[in-house]
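Re-run with default settings, no changes from the original entry. Doing this only to confirm the output is reproducible before filing.
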Amino acid sequence: MAFLRSFIITLAIMAPSFKLLANAAVTPRSNKCSVWYDVLKDIQNEVFDGSKCGEEAHESIRLAFHDAISYSPRLGGGGADGSIMMYPEIETKYAENAGLDDIVHRQRPFALKHGVSFGDIIQFANAVALSNCEGGPRVPFYAGRSNYSQPSPDNLVPAPFHSVDQILGRMSEVGFDSDEVVALLAAHSVAAQDQQDTSMKGSPLDSTPSVFDGQFYLETMTNSPPEGVFRIPADRLFATDPRTVCLWQTFVDDHNSMVNQFSRAMVKLAAVGQDHASLYDCSEAIPAPRRLRNHRPKFPYGQSAKHVHYKCTEASFPQAKLNHDSSPVPPVQKS
């Protein structure tokens, strides 16, 4: 019965999607993308609490990655096809998708209301969420994904406790090299955790969780994170691995490079499992991001460059300020 209900919903949503594609040859692009301005208004008000870079924005960014990376040429899956939203009773039960059920159910009604596909709204909400964060990128958004999907297999999303070899191997299977993986991890600069340590619910992954900046890259290179910040084991491994440490170090204070490389990798990720040539550019509906006000990162309280033991030997370590504030970093609250 669950499959039948999903199939009926699929047909209901696909009908307007097919109409849009059928009119593509004669409809100006701005009209073709007009629905996304309506979606934007709804999700900014109803999901992101008036364009905030809070917990819902963080989870929308996480959702886009988890939906898209669930593809393997060997094991199946449809990539960025919205299957996690089509089959939440299956995919949100996977261990690495724990906690995503809430944001799936927050976004899903707006796909139904506006007649857009689940895969499209997941990637659109991701791009909008990133633009809500100070210093965030304006990631291009391409629409036109079909709403037909099958549940993705389990164990395709890299885990927080995986080794660098395991994560690079998984990502290379879908065409991403080590530099692109390091760039994609910039998403952790606007992230928090609830599932890895339930005693620290809402703990951010760096001390500036509403700012898309290099603070995450600096803090993961130091001996220990600031008080209140949760460190994912895999992030620390990437920050200290000889294959990735040089680019990791570059992103500490090269904001433009971080944003540009992240944006390119994110567009590539959003096309995993899709025919990119069949998608159409609706980036015009993505808001302009808020400019980064402070480019210079800070060491965690009580630490300095001498507490960074794994550095890139090919370049000098970036200049960073000492932090004289010993206050714990507060948890991220849901709106």
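Residues 12-20+30-157+266-285 form a domain with the Peroxidase; domain 1 fold (CATH 1.10.520.10). The longest helix spans residues 2-22.
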